[in-house]
Amino acid sequence: MVMIYCRSIHHSGKGEVCGPCEELIDYASKRLERCPKQNDKSSCRICEIHCYAPQRKEEIRAVMRYVGPRMIFYHPITAIRHLIDELR
Ligand SMILES: [Zn+2]
User: Where are the alpha helices (DSSP H) in the chain?
Assistant: First the structure.
């Protein structure tokens, strides 16, 4: 997700991310590792956002807001599955 965002907004090359975005990915994956609800993947929106620090939360939100609707074009199956999960 961050990679798509970075490529469109920060104009980084294919398969590359800029420094701040790399940091964000790093932060997000570390958070996910420590997430207490890791085995209870009902909705990553509900879960993830609540364990992020406020500033990071805003960054992640900006990414989600940008990439969310575009996921349909990049990863149709992932996006649709995600939507179905959210509706449960
Ligand atoms: Zn970037």
Answer: 2-9, 19-34, 44-51, 54-74, 76-87
